[in-house]
Write a structure and sequence with these properties.
The complex is a heterodimer of chains A (about 290) and B (about 230).
Chain A: H1 2-19, E1 24-31, E2 45-47, H2 57-74, E3 80-81, H3 84-92, H4 95-107, E4 121-126, H5 138-142, H6 144-154, H7 161-164, E5 172-178, H8 189-198, E6 203-221, E7 228-245, E8 251-259, H9 262-265, H10 269-281, E9 291-292
Parallel strand pairs in A: 1-5, 2-3, 2-6
Antiparallel strand pairs in A: 1-8, 4-5, 4-9, 6-7, 7-8
Helix pairs in contact in A: 2-6, 2-10, 4-8, 6-10
Chain B: H1 2-17, E1 24-29, E2 43-45, E3 49-51, H2 57-75, E4 79-80, H3 82-88, H4 90-100, H5 106-112, H6 114-124, E5 128-153, E6 156-169, E7 174-183, E8 188-197, H7 209-226
Helix pairs in contact in B: 2-7, 4-6
The chains are: A alpha/beta (about 290), B alpha/beta (about 230).
Chain lengths: ~290, ~230
């Protein structure tokens, strides 16, 4: 009987530990040095298809669907183009794919500009809920994963088990590092101009999902069993966003988000995509205000 | 104390079972809806796409031969080998390789090239296609010390694990291979398997596709049985 109680208690503890509210933990690093102050005033922005070297389709499907959710939430009148509109242009003009590829060659792999440096400025999100004037509209955020999962399923593609696992509790923990120094070479100007003209936009926003993996050597230490070692490969979640001036080909803003606990955080992919778009584009207050301090 | 030791032994056993040189990650993704892959429809083998790396001609050749061999074993007459497809749809496959070998969302690429997919389906008589990709990814390497503790607290035994980060070390970027089952008619991704390996890819091109194909094949086979 005692053993049974003990086992039940242990199982209960494990269930409690697993089921406890999990805030969304994120850390990001961004470079905003070249972002013009006038960008918000009626600028037209095209969000291009998600870039990835090989890419897990199940992740990309929910991220792609999240872009549509974002557009619905901020409204189509804000000068943002994404998803089907962009794909239609790509299918009509075969040269756009080649132009996009020329740009991606410069952006797809590890970005040294978005590595953490000592002089970077660290801020934390003020996570207070919306009070009518400022704060975050958590109720607006909480349905994003569900909506994104629905859209991914509608598309009939490899939909999103990740997005179906809705975040248990949306309470953001977001640490932002702002780069003191970042230097991007201009992207291939002809390709950027070709894209921005064809898509009739002032800026292009390029989302990049980096296939990042962790190779880990783990040393296990027990009290009665000696130390032994295992090795393993683990998937990481890195999402980078580049806002590129369509006239000059310059990267005016770059943001990379890393989710700290990859397996659990996968359920928040769609949410993270929407928040990142909100941070990069800064149009409307559909999700409330995101203040960092 | 006895019980504590028992729990410790179980934990140690579980951990020990993971011990070994596992430097490969294999993840597969089965179709969300049952019955999406119809067993009566044929599956076309497509030429491998490379992303971020150059693959040599012998590697490509060996890989294609291996794919044809393993997939024919797996799917039998339902599979139309790449070697056969190259003869019947040469021009379309050349166009496919040019149009599709870009580094953005495969599902979006399929939608963008919807007419090409349909042309390929019509010319080959295959509704489905299997697309292998080979690429590289960024990687980090770390040393971690896991200290396991067991605290008997009355009726409850608390078992925990404290990971202590020892430091990073130099890592070379890894190889990633994927195998994706496509619906050419609908222009959609049905299922996929991905494998990331720290080990250098075999020059013969024959070492890794088996596991991926097994993963894909298994999910497709389950769906076939449901129909």
């Amino acid at each position: 009987m005692k053993t049974l109680i003990q086992t039940v208690s242990l199982v209960a503890c494990l269930i409690l530990a697993a089921g406890c509210a999990t805030p969304v933990p994120m850390s990001s690093i961004e470079s905003t040095a070249k972002r013009p102050a006038t960008l918000n005033a009626g600028s037209r922005i095209a969000i291009l298809p998600i870039a990835a070297r090989v890419g897990g389709q199940r992740y990309l499907a929910s991220l792609s669907a999240a872009q549509e959710v974002y557009l619905e939430r901020v409204g189509a009148t804000t000068g943002i183009k994404a998803g089907r509109d962009i794909e239609k242009k790509f299918s009509e003009q075969g040269n756009l794919t080649a132009a996009y590829q020329a740009i991606l060659e410069k952006l797809l792999d590890r970005d040294p500009n978005l590595c953490v440096a000592q002089e970077d400025i660290l801020t934390t999100l003020d996570s207070k809920p919306w009070n009518g004037q400022s704060g975050i509209k958590y109720e607006k955020l909480s349905d994003i994963n569900t909506l994104a999962a629905g859209k991914a399923t509608q598309r009939g593609s490899a939909a999103a088990p990740a997005a179906n696992a809705v975040a248990r509790e949306i309470r953001l923990q977001w640490n932002v590092r702002t780069k003191a120094k970042a230097s991007y070479d201009p992207l291939p100007l002809a390709s950027v101009k070709e894209l921005s003209q064809a898509l009739e936009c002032d800026y292009v926003l390029i989302p990049v999902v980096r296939d990042s993996y962790n190779y880990v050597k783990q040393w296990f230490a027990f009290t009665i069993i000696p130390v032994f070692r295992t090795t393993g490969v683990y998937r990481m979640n890195d999402m980078a966003f580049y806002l590129v001036d369509g006239a000059s080909g310059e990267v005016v803003q770059a943001l990379q988000i890393t989710e700290n606990r990859a397996p659990q955080a996968a359920s928040n992919d769609a949410l993270v995509m929407v928040l990142a778009l909100n941070k990069m584009i800064q149009k409307g207050d559909s999700f409330g205000s995101f203040t960092f301090r | 104390m006895k019980r504590a030791l028992c729990v410790l032994a179980v934990v140690a056993g579980v951990s020990l079972s993971q011990c070994g040189c596992r430097t490969t990650l294999l993840e597969s993704y089965a179709p969300p809806k049952s019955g999406r892959c119809q067993s009566t429809e044929k599956i076309l083998g497509l030429p491998p796409l490379a992303g971020g790396i150059q693959i040599s001609a012998p590697f490509r050749q060996n890989l294609e031969l291996e794919l044809d061999k393993v997939l024919a074993e797996r799917w039998g007459a339902q599979y139309v080998p790449l070697s056969q497809g190259k003869q019947s749809c040469q021009a379309l496959l050349a166009k496919w390789t040019t149009q599709m070998s870009c580094d953005y969302d495969l599902a979006a690429r399929l939608r963008v090239n919807a007419s090409l997919c349909q042309d390929l389906a019509q010319a080959s008589g295959c509704r489905y296609a299997i697309l292998p990709t080979v690429g590289r990814c960024n990687s980090d390497a770390a040393n971690i010390l896991n200290v396991t503790y067991v605290i008997p607290a009355g009726l409850v035994i608390i078992v925990g694990n404290v990971p202590i980060f020892l430091g990073k070390y130099q890592a070379n970027d890894m190889s990633v291979c994927t195998m994706t089952l496509l619906d050419l008619k609908e222009g959609a991704v049905i299922s996929e398997a991905a494998m990331a390996s720290r080990d250098k890819m075999s020059e013969s091109g024959a070492a890794y596709p088996g596991a991926l194909i097994n993963a894909i094949g298994r999910s497709a086979k389950i769906k076939q049985r449901k129909i």
